[in-house]
Amino acid sequence: MTSLLDQLVLAPVILPLLGAGLCLAFGRFASAQRVISIITLVAVVASASVLLVRADRHGPQSFNVGGWPAEIGISLVADRLSSLLLLISTIVTLCVLLYSVGQGIVEFGRDAPLSVFYPTFLVLSAGVSNAFLSADLFNLFVGFEILLASSYVLITLGGTEARVRSGTIYIIVSLASSALFLISVACVYAATGTVNFAQLALRMPELSSPVATMLQLMLLLTFAVKAAVFPLSAWLPDSYPTAPAPVTAVFAGLLTKVGIYAMLRTQTLLFPTHELRTLLLWASILTMVVGIMGAVAQSDIKRVLSFTLVSHIGFMLFGIALASDLGMTGAIFYIVHHITVQTTLFLVAGLVEYRSGTTNLDRLGGLARHAPVLAVMFFVPAMNLAGIPPFSGFLGKLALIEAGVEAGDWLALVGVGAAVATSLLTLYAVVKIWNRAFWQPMADPEDETPVPFDPLVMGGSLHGRSSVGTATQRETTWKEDTEGERLPLRMAMPTIALGLVTVALTVFGAPLFSVADRAADELHERTPYIEAVLGDG
Amino acid sequence: MTANLMLIAVVGVMVGAGVTLVLERSLTRILVGFVLIGNGLNVLFLVVSGPAGAAPILGLSGDPMADPLPQAMALTAIVITLGTTAFGLALAYRAWQLTGTDDVQDDLEDDLIRRRAERDEVSATFDEVDDTELPDEGYAGDATLAPEDEVPA
Fold it and tell me: Helix crossing, A509-525 with A489-507: angle to 10°?
């Protein structure tokens, strides 16, 4: 009964944890750690793709961990939505890992007795997979905690002052949202006597409407913090830009999307009557508009990108809020698109930083002439993010806007307007980066009013040996080292590969869209998921 | 389901005290706050698990068993709180090493806006604030000590 293929659902969670353990065991051998990490993630990508094919052909794959029945044990389920997001997130993780290998992100040396980057990175991957696959609320909480705990380590990597400062805020916000999550789990258990999604889906309708709405609000609030939905998004642009480039990239790609995934799952499975439509629509509209206003006002590439990240969360939330078939399909498609595009852009920002020593637009210029390849690498995903027609961003936005028009009420139409305005302003924000960093010639440093060197904005990357010195010292010495240096191929290749993935999402837009469509159907049907969890208990 | 009112009151007090501490500026206090909240939530799981019963081991006793599931969850939550607290303490120590204080610093955006206002003296929003009154003087990169901690002990 339990053939090896049935247990494949476990692989994306178990393998990275195993790899992390091995990495720690080989803590003193950098190359061994690299090889282990890469092999692990390649295996996870392979298993995720098999899972997607199986989930698409044979319905949701479920596995009860330890043989306990789903009602009291932990079960993992890969339906179309889970496995699609799992596949794309592991591909992105693998690319970022290769990038960081190329960057030489190892902290061996005098100050670090043990390299923690690779094991932590793998644990992060395990946490993300666990969150995507988990079939109960508490295991989802554990998944979140795994990925948050490793993100705490990654965001404060090296322990420089800027990172400690921004990491502190990030950690406090995350701890608060985790506490809220725990309260929600306890309340859900008190009300229904279970935390299993499938059982919850059956029992939720029996609850009185105020109780159900309260539970829904609590869960939404929790996930809104994790996903950086507008009133709860202030922590994100503050904490992400200071981390090393690959870390920011993988956070931007994955962490907020896990929050969106959790919303998508609970909204469709537990609360299909959808009473908070108005609230969600307003939240999505405000997230889009306020986020992109922030992006327009910034003058640092990483900070602009962080604000666009917040803003585009609004698009996905818009699809969830509409809850129509097309809206869900659009939201799923948009998640896949946005994971890859946003990660690529952050990796490119890392390359810009590597090459020029800064991501501050006031001190960049002429990159299109000096680094044409880098310019192309930025231009394609940037246009994709803004939603210029041939690209996948356009397809996702089009689906969402169509869904909004289809819904037809005035609030949905306001949302459509906000989506269009946000796309235009996104275009403005990325073109601003393009003009100032790539197109126009470098401003003569003497002419300019001196911009005070800002160690806060310059998070710096962990290029070379990580020193515990102040950020200022490290950045300046390092800038001289790499000024005018050519792009290291080993960092550029993974970025190009990920850029090609974003283009591939466009080329294979139709099959991807149909998978997203089938995933949305499955979410609306609900029965396949419930049967898969409870059926073969 | 009958709920134990006493335990709920305990949860309320612990979480309330925890939230009060989290609103402080010092990271150490915030962490103590989160420990209180975490423990309060573990008590909440006791409330959730319903009336007390025999040890939940199959075949050991015929009495009605206590619900084992919330216990497992509380146990997991305890472990997670332990880990994050340990990390948070290390972070507070590191912040203290670097800046001489473990105060949570202002949001970066606030700093940037303040600095922009300083550069642009005709700005209408810029009122001449004496910078030394601001709590986050230590941002300049070197290990300048922040002004005296004004939080009452």
Answer: 70
Helix (H, G, I), strand (E, B) or coil at B100: coil
Q: Using CA atoms in the order A200, B84, B31, B72, what is the torsion angle rounded to 10 degrees?
A: 40
**What total of structural domains would you count in chain A?**
1
Task: Return d(Cα A381, Cα A373) in angstroms, integer.
Answer: 13
Q: Which residues of B touch A161 (CB under 8 A)?
A: 98-99, 141
Distance from CA of A149 to the nearest CA of B (A): 7
3-state secondary structure of B36: helix
Within-domain flag for A450: no
Interface mutation target, options B45, B94, B142, chain A, most CBs of A under 10 Å = B94
| Cβ of residue B45 closer than 8 Å to a chain A Cβ | yes
Nearest beta carbon to residue B95 from set A168, A186, A472: A168
Alpha carbon distance B76, B100 (integer Å) = 35
Query: Does A245 score more than 60 pLDDT?
Result: yes
pTM, two decimals, is 0.85
Contact: B41, A156; criterion CB under 8 Å:
no
Spatial distance between the Cα atoms of A184 and A191, rounded to a whole number of angstroms: 10
- CA A140, A141, A143 angle in degrees (round to 5)? 60
Q: A115 and chain B: CB distance < 8 Å anywhere?
A: no
Q: Is B110 on the interface with A (CB under 8 A)?
A: no
Q: List the alpha helices (DSSP H) in A298-371.
A: 301-322, 325-356, 367-370
Say if CB A30 and CB A106 are below 8 A apart: yes
Beta carbons of A399 and A333 less than 8 angstroms apart? yes
- Rounded CA gap, A110 and A467, in Å? 9
Distance CA(A186)–CA(A195), nearest Å, equals 9
Q: How far is CA A407 from CA A263, A329, A393, A401, in A?
A: 20, 14, 21, 10
Answer whether A407's CB lies under 8 Å from A322's CB.
Answer: yes
**pLDDT bucket at A32, cuts 50 / 70 / 90:** confident
Q: SS3 helix, strand, coil % of chain B, rounded to 5?
A: 60, 5, 40
Q: Is residue A59 part of a domain?
A: yes
Which residue range is the domain that position A96 belongs to? 6-445+456-535
In a domain, A159, yes or no: yes
Rounded Cα distance between A195 and A189, Å, is: 6
- HSE on the CB side for A181, CA within 13 Å? 27
* Contact criterion met (CB below 8 Å) for A291 and A310: yes
Q: Is residue A451 part of a domain?
A: no
pLDDT value for A463: 37
State how far the alpha carbon of A399 is from the alpha carbons of A196, A328, A396, A513, in Å.
Answer: 32, 9, 5, 10
Both ends of chain A: CA-CA distance in Å?
12
CB contact under 8 A, B139 and A452: no
- pLDDT, tens only, B50-107: 777 777 777 776 677 788 888 888 999 999 999 999 999 998 888 888 888 777 777 7
Distance (Å, whole) CA B97 – CA B138: 12
Domains defined for chain B, CATH in brackets: 5-53+66-99 (1.10.287.3510)
Distance, in Å, from the CA atom of A405 to the CA atom of A399, rounded to the nearest integer, reads 10
A215-243 residue pLDDT tens: 999 999 999 999 888 888 888 888 888 88
Q: CA-to-CA distance for A75 and A61, rounded, in angstroms?
A: 10
What radius of gyration, in Å, describes the C-alpha atoms of chain A? 22
Point out which residues pair with A136 in neighbouring strands: A196
ipTM over 0.85: no
